[in-house]
Amino acid sequence: MAKQNQKLLELVDCNLSILEGNENKQMTGRDASSIRERYFDKEGHLNENALAKLKANTKEMNNILQGNIPTPENSKSSTTTKGVMKCQLYIPEKLNHTSANAFGNCFIRTLKDASIKCQEANISSLSKELPLLVTCPLTGRLNPCVEHALQGFKWKMPYKVIIINLGTETSLPELPSSIKIEPKPAYQNAEFIDMAYNDDNGIYDCPMNNEALLKIKQFLESKTA
Q1: What residues have CB less than 8 Å from 87, skipping those under 6 apart?
Q2: How high is the mean pLDDT of the chain?
Q3: pLDDT tens digits, one per residue of 2-50
Q4: 114 with 78: CB under 8 angstroms?
């Protein structure tokens, strides 16, 4: 509970910093300038980044208050009435390198802590009986990375593509990848979910990863309903 309260305070503080802009007297000159450049347009109005950030923060605050966001305090004891949920993880062969495999191993452990049994599968062993998650690390520009990862991949049922944002929390994008990806027929059954990862901290505790875990659990629950 203490951790959740602290997270709520951080989200409230972030929203206030965005809304106050020039009026936040507690901010240093550099901090205030950074806020203005990131969240305000030239006329001094809130821009799209600000609105998206405020919306995401408000959504997470609501999820925390409703007890829906998994945290390190409760993820290990998280269970469902249907027991342990299952899914399969596919790392495209063209992306099957050290970094992708390291994320895959960390991802499987993270889901296990959330009472989700995830097994890695190759293209020939994918099962139509299990919900599918596909990885896509961002090693360059978003759309070319997605196109490269999913090129030639076909799956007739809804599945999730995990967009792996490599880096620290301060370097994460303000807007979700799902609204920046160019729609293509090849992606018609895919829904894109952002996750954050780095070699030092793995899948670390941050709003992006908390929301991702919630979306994954909701997806799996919908498949077992």
Answers
A1: 111, 116, 117, 118, 119, 130, 131, 132, 133, 216, 220
A2: 79
A3: 656 666 667 677 777 767 654 444 445 545 555 566 667 777 777 766 6
A4: yes
pLDDT at 74: 42
- Given this structure, which CATH class describes domain 79-224? alpha beta
Domain ranges of the chain: 2-65, 79-224
pTM equals 0.63
C-alpha separations of 45 from 14, 25, 40, 49, 59 in Å: 17, 19, 5, 11, 22
**What is the share, in percent, of the chain residues with pLDDT greater than 90?**
43
Q: What 8-state DSSP symbol labels residue 76?
A: G
Taking residues 128-136, what's their average pLDDT? 94
CA angle 220, 222, 225 (to 5 degrees): 110
Q: Would you mind telling me the total number of residues written for the chain in this entry?
A: 225
Cα 222–Cα 224–Cα 225 angle in degrees, nearest 5 = 65
Q: What is the layout of strands, in order, in the sheet containing 116-121?
A: 116-121, 85-90, 132-137, 159-166, 190-197
DSSP letter at 141? -
What is the 8-class DSSP label of residue 183? Answer: P
Calculate ∠ Cα 6-116-202, nearest 5°: 55
